[in-house]
## 1
Amino acid sequence: EVQLVESGGGLVKPGGSLRLSCVVSGFTFSSYSMNWVRQTPGKGLEWVSSISRSSISRSSSYKFYAESVKGRFNISRDNAKNSLFLQMNSLRAEDTAVYYCARVGSCSGGTCSYVDYWGQGTLVTVSS
Amino acid sequence: QSVLTQPPSASGTPGQRVTISCSGSSSNIGSNTVNWYQHLPGTTPKLLIYSNNLRPSGVPDRFSGSKSGTSASLAISGLQSEDEANYYCAVWDDGLNGPGVFGGGTKLTVL
């Protein structure tokens, strides 16, 4: 059974930092790209960041960020520990949201990409 | 404001067919596949449609998706009360398997 379990959320003051973690099980973590997606209170889903799967030819992964978090957030992964991370710095009130860890599935031949599994989410509240 | 444009609300009566649109551009919908999610408050989003028109196992065939150019649609036929939820279209860069974008979401009300 595929499982994704986030942790690390909480209350933090504006300008502060927080590190989210996501431990996965039930699939070969290193073979999948992973995302962080958030939902702000009363608003919709927002893609935050992606990290590509590892490959034999490359030791590092590609990383992508939404413009709203670029330069402040850093996504990383530890394949040996089946873990995904999101380091969030210089937090703002508008970063308040439930943050979901999500697995990116793909069609054969890489002709499509989509999030197929989600964690339960962890709440981040940025407030003084 | 989301890159993908959805109507904020939609409604229908039980048994009716409703459609939800998603409008984008050549850089997102026009060059990648479209996915649809159902999201109920307090729960995890559920994948309804992937790769424009494919249903994961367990999703009823009442749900269908289509794409044309830079727009996509989700159709729900035989509307049921449990279909009342928020629906989101989403696109990921199929080539990079990376950057994604969501629509603003459509709140579906079953009257």
Note: The first strand of chain B starts at residue 9 and ends at 12.
## 2
Amino acid sequence: SQELEQSPQSLIVQEGKNLTINCTSSKTLYGLYWYKQKYGEGLIFLMMLQKGGEEKSHEKITAKLDEKKQQSSLHITASQPSHAGIYLCGAPGVTSGTYKYIFGTGTRLKVLA
Amino acid sequence: NAGVTQTPKFQVLKTGQSMTLQCAQDMNHEYMSWYRQDPGMGLRLIHYSVGAGITDQGEVPNGYNVSRSTTEDFPLRLLSAAPSQTSVYFCASSLLAGGPVNEQFFGPGTRLTVL
């Protein structure tokens, strides 16, 4: 079965520092989403990547999907306390049917002011 | 638009009780789904639906039933609650046009505790 592995599991950074979160798939990805979840709340869509080599940015967050479509990275530049939360990558399942979505276990980010 | 709404926000059940978690969306989305989120496990798909009258099982369907009589509503029923079903439950919806890579919109979640 297909799995998404995120690293690191948790991250504590000083405000203003850059950071990167990775999401690795055991199989080629059909597409890849990044979501942010504030503690105790629902998921907020950040961006979606579909093509190998694709890169998207929104404010200080940049996500990229590698050429082989098996790994994605989320990069935050000059982190702020508002970036704190849980970052989740998700994807449509490839082997079990494309509408059976899978998610990584999440990366907990804490930004120290 | 209200987006995806879920009720209740919190619920405590005793083992063996049954209940229904409600989910509704007002975006005319064909696809709706239920997930559970447990510490260290990420989101796991319980059931999903690609339209009224069509449902299918996800990764962890045991102990849960769903039905989709309208495009707007997708209730999740717990038949006989067990402590292992203590979790946070999220409902999500998305368009189907263009394939499965459309953005999923998530509800605020229901925090369920089974004693």
Note: Chain B touches chain A at residues 31, 33, 35, 40-45, 48, 50, 56, 58-59, 90, 92, 99-101, 103-109 (CB under 8 Å).
